[in-house]
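Narrative of activities, Objective 1.

The group set out to show that a structural description can be obtained from nothing but a protein's sequence at a throughput compatible with the screening campaign. Below is one input-output pair from the validation batch, recorded exactly as produced.
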Amino acid sequence: MSARPAATRRTVLRGAALTSVAGLGLTACGPTEKGAAPLTGPVELGPEDEVAKGGAKLYRDHNVVVSRSGDGTLKAYNTVCTHAGCPINKLEGTKLICPCHGSEFDATTGKVLREPAVAPLKTLAVGVENGTLVARPQA
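Output recorded for this entry:
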């Protein structure tokens, strides 16, 4: 006869429930959507005039943000959050907001405005080809 008491149905069910909850907690810090991979080649984003001077535009389908300074200079950044790899899906003015943990980035510099992210967004090359914005990984 064993000195250990047998597990009750309640104990087994409680353990199963806790295991499920723990699994959800672990996946919360990983990418939550498909397509969060960084750019691997050139991608056409849209017409050049979509990005106003002093503004920014988020291209969610490509995980890219493009900003244009007052003098017309274009800058682009990969919008995969540097904290947990989540695709950033919100742009307010020139502030990018990650939906996973609330990290915020400046769309004009790529710098972190609010943690938990500490590394800036990855810079991309951006240019205009035949009136179309084209972003690509930096060489």
